[in-house]
Please model this.
Amino acid sequence: MILDSEILQAQDSRYRATLINSLAGVKQAFLIGSKSSSGHSNLAIFNSLIHIGANPPLWGFLCRPDTVKRDTLANILETGEYSFNFVKHSDSEKAHQTSAKYALEESEFAAVGFNEQYYEGFSAPFVAEAPIKIGMKFVEKVDIAINGTILVIGSISFIDIDEKLIALDGFVQLDQAELLNCSGLDAYFETRLIHRLSYAKTDKWPSKL
Model:
């Protein structure tokens, strides 16, 4: 079956969005914790994590104002701080429920059953139950003109992670943390490592590490 651009454009908008979104594959699910300048905490699920660079450590995520609540973006721009929280697949229903359109004054933490956690000198809330927590500082907002999508870039301020999850070479063994992955807007997966391979060279076939 060939689906060209004309066929795709002729499809029902919801069907087309589901197809294109899920076709992009399985990605890391993460919860962004933020707080408004008036003190209201917010928690929202995303799956668009982008590694920008390691020196300095920069991560980005995509925000779609036409389909995603703007509370997260507004809070980040107001305060400059936010958190990335990787949760376990056993918390998939709670994580998914954060995508519901709660009122600004109603915290998703309390609404879905996650506990707020704070670190000294950092204003944004974290998910206490998350095995991996990352404190982020806002750096740059990039407007993508073609569809109104916004790329939010931040620097990693600190990482809270069990040292047992980090291999001797620095590789983070996400599969051992039983983290939640997702595809599209409603499909959730477990993390499973197949293997790691040696650095690719033209004169040598890769070996398993």
Summary: The chain has one domain: 25-190. The domain at 25-190 is CATH 2.30.110.10 (Pnp Oxidase; Chain A). The helical segments are 5-10, 13-23, 71-79, 92-97, 108-112.
